[in-house]
Amino acid sequence: MTETNSHSKLKTNKDLMDISRKMRGEIVEMSHTADAMHLGSSLSCVDIFVALYYGGCLNIDPKNASLPTRDRVLLSKGHASMTLYKILAEKGFFPKSLLKTFNKSGSHLTEHPNLGALPGVEMTAGSLGHGLSVGLGMALAGRIRSVPYNVFVIMSDGECNEGSVWEAAMLAPAQKADNLVAIIDFNRWQATGRSEKIMALNPLKEKWESFGWSAYDIDGHDIGSLIKILSAVPDGSGKPMAIIAHTIKGKGVSFMEDDNNWHYRIPNAEEVKKAKGELKVP
Ligand SMILES: Cc1ncc(C[n+]2csc(CCOP(=O)(O)OP(=O)(O)O)c2C)c(N)n1
Fold first, then answer.
1. What is the spatial distance between Cα 212 and Cα 218, in angstroms, rounded to a whole number?
2. pTM metric for this prediction
């Protein structure tokens, strides 16, 4: 039983939704204070992180963040670092006071995460398309060393335009890497437009299946369903798992939801107040 598991047993779906709501309020504030972009991208994947870290899906110990047996979570869409930092601080990987330094000169909380800068950050990210290959390497290393951990890679739909994603997608089933999970935050936007118009991905689930993965379409804001699937890894099929998490960019704030201007826009003080009012956070 891990620290995460023992806490999460007490949490109801409502508790978890409250955690997400509060996290969203604080992430909006972080974007404003730190003058940081990618707010819509960060709000999009909050529920995925909450399901993983609060849903009993991970074998982790925040006070022993480099235990060889730990499960690994890789944020391949590194531009959503605010969500990663927020949840790691909440779980006690590092002091919450450090969040104030996000995106400031000299801070370890860089706009894109750096391996080794903070406990709980498992890879350097920023250049999209690398996380799945890194995660596959880690998954295979675990198997070679007979250490039974799982690797969860949080990716984006735009990222699936990168050829490197599909090289790893081909290799993982060939290696029967059933301890590897790709979670695609499928909010249907990229930096400059609709994913489907820039390079069509659909039918995405069938693509992963045809490469030899167990693939699932899921509502990426339904924390209960996310937990159900994420806690069943490996699923017994001998295949890696791809979860197509259907999400809304900017989720939780009415005037940011599905508005891709919030990929780059930074909220002003008035917008922060309005957003926090909607989210019912002080
Ligand atoms: C290889 C690479 N090319 C370009 C970028 C610049 N960039 C940052 S975010 C982004 C796209 C964002 O769309 P998506 O990946 O779908 O994630 P979302 O923000 O919608 O969650 C791009 C192109 C990058 N980070 N890496």
1. 19
2. 0.96
